[in-house]
User: What shape does this take?
Amino acid sequence: MRIYDDIQLDYCDVLLRPKRSALASRSEVEVLREYTFKWCSKPLTATGIVAANMATTGTFEIAREMQKQHLMSALHKHYSAEDLLAFLKQNAEEFGSNDLLFVSSGVSDADYEKLKTVMQSGLVRNICVDVANGYSPYLINYIRKVRKEWPEALIMAGNVVTGDMCEDLILSGADIVKVGIGPGSVCTTRKLTGVGRPQFSTVIECADAAHGVGGMVCADGGCTVPGDVCKSFCAGADFVMLGGLLAGHAESGGELCSKSFQTGEVEMIDDKTCAMRIVEKQYKKFYGMSSEYAQDKHYGGMKKYRASEGKVVEIPFRGPVEATLLAILGGIRSCMTYIGAKRLKDMPKCATFYRVNRQLNTIFGNE
Ligand code: 5GP
Assistant: This one.
C-alpha cells in the first residue's frame, strides 16, 4: 500500500505573507488579464473568475452580472439549445461578444448533438466539458472529438486533481483543465466515496503540470470567502470557479422561500397587549448537481446504481449579486497590493505562504 506522506493543504491551512511593495494603492493594480491558449488561437481578456455551471449559478441572469465586471460564466447544461441560442444572440448585442461565456456539455451522444446545434450558430466558442470523474476514458475521447470538430474552440475540461491527468487532458485537446474533486460547498463525494484531495495542494500541483505543457487550470470549488479566491490565484490558478459564493442571490437559480421565526423579543401591540416578535426571513435553495434533489429536478429521478454525491441547503437570501462580485474583486485588488503584484498573472510569482493552524478569529461568529 502506498501512502503519500506530503502534507496536503486546503485554503484554510495557509495565509499569504505581506511584502514591501511599490504599489501605493489598489487602483494601481490590474485585475484584467490577457489570456493566450495552447489550442484556441484567439486571445481573451477577462478577470478569470467563472460562475460554476450548476443549475443555480450558471444562469443567464448571473452571467449578465458577471460580464458587467468582465468576469466569466459557464452556463448550465439544463437550458435547451433554443434557450441558449436566444440568450447568446441577445447577449452578443448587449456585450459585443459571447467571449466570457462557456456552454457546458457532458460526454454523452445527446450532449454532443446539443453542443453541435449551439456551436453551429457561430455565436459562441468556449466549451466547458464537465464530468464528475475526469479520470474516465470517456472524457479524453470526448475532448479529442470536440477538438477535432472545433479546432478554434476554447475548451475547458475536468475534473481531476493530479498533474499527470492534467497533462493528458491538455495534450488531448483541452486548453484549460478544471481541477477539484470534493471541495465543493454542496458536494458529498468525499463523505460517500472517500475520494478527493485538499484543494490548495491540488491547484499547486495541477497548475505546475498544466503550465509545463502550455495549458492552464481552473480551480473549481472550495472558495468560501474572497480570500480563498486570492489564495487560489496565488497558488497558480489561471481561473477560479465559484458556486456557493454566488448562490442565494437574486440572479441565482433555486426556489425562494420564507420562514417565520420567534425572536424571543416582546413586542407591544398596544398599551395592554404584547406578543412575541415574529420576523420573516427569505431563503434560497442551493443544491449539488449530483444531489438527489438535482437528479429528481433535472433528470427525472435518481438512477438506482447512482448514489447522491451532493446536498441541498437553504441560504439566507443575499440580494443582488453585484455587491458580492465587487467584494471579491475588491479582495483581489487589496491582496495584490499586500503582496506587490501589479498584474493578476504576477500573483503566484509574488506569493509566499505561511502554513497556519488557524486563520480566522471566530469569537463573534464566522462572518
Ligand atoms: P463551491 O464553489 O460551491 O465550493 O464549488 C462549486 C463546485 O462544486 C462546482 O463547480 C462543481 O465542480 C462542484 N459540485 C457541484 N455540485 C456537486 C455535487 O452534487 N457533487 C459534487 N461532488 N460536486 C459538485
